[in-house]
Design brief:
single chain, about 120 residues, mainly alpha, 5 helices, about 85% helix
């Protein structure tokens, strides 16, 4: 039961930040799954991607209600992104686990710096 509550907390945090800022899956869920629930990086990524699909459906419906969804533009971003996800997943399987964690940390720090400047 404790693990179920932890997973629900990860989902709640990811959903809140996803709705508020348009982020949440990878940026919030992956670190929490790794640090809090001892997932390996690859398992956290795969689990997060499925959770993103579920969150995105709810978030899209809520934003559509407010008129914030541009379907054609979303398709122009989303369709090529599917190819990127497949390529990124294949690459991830070839990168050593410790290097993968370091690269993700560097990405998060880089994004934080850009947002602060």
């Amino acid at each position: 039961m404790h693990r179920t509550l932890q997973l629900a907390a990860v989902g709640s945090a990811a959903g809140l930040f996803s709705g508020l800022f348009g982020v949440g899956g990878g940026v919030i869920a992956v670190p929490l799954l790794v640090l809090w629930l001892a997932y390996e990086e690859r398992e956290a990524t795969g689990t997060s991607l499925l959770a993103i699909a579920i969150m995105a459906a709810g978030g899209t419906a809520a934003h559509a209600f407010y008129g914030n969804v541009h379907v054609a533009e979303a398709a122009l971003v989303g369709v090529p992104a599917m190819g990127g996800v497949v390529a990124g997943t294949a690459l991830q399987q070839r990168v050593p686990q410790d290097r993968l964690s370091l690269l993700f940390a560097v990405l998060l720090v880089g994004v934080a710096i850009v947002l602060l400047v």
